[in-house]
Amino acid sequence: MSCQITCVAWVKRGVAKETPEKVELSKEELQHLVTETREQHLVEAEDDDGLPGEEEGNQESSRTYAPECDDLDGAETNEDQDDSERLDGAELAEYGLDRYDEDTATVNYGDTLAGLAVYGTNEEDPYITIKDTDQYDREDFLIKPSDNLVVAGRVEKDCCSLEMHIYNQEEESFYVHHDVVLPAYPLCLEWLNFDPNPEEGPGNYIAVGNMTTVIDVWDLDVVDCLEPVFSLGGKATKKKKKKKKAKKNTTAEEGEGHSDAVLDLSWNKHVRNVLASASADNTVILWDMTQCKAVSTLSLHTDKVQTLQFHPFEAQTLLSGSYDKSSILYDCRTPQETHRSWRFSGQVERLTWNHFAPFYFLASTDDGFVYCLDARADKPVFTLKAHDAEVSGLELSSQVKGCLVTASEDKFVKIWDILGNKPSLIHSRDMKMSVLFCASCCPDLPFVYAFGGQTGGVRIWDISDVAAVATTFGNRERLAAATTSQPVANSSSVTTDTPMES
Question: Which of 56, 224, 242, 278 is most buried, by the most CB atoms less than 10 A from its CB?
Answer without folding.
Answer: 278
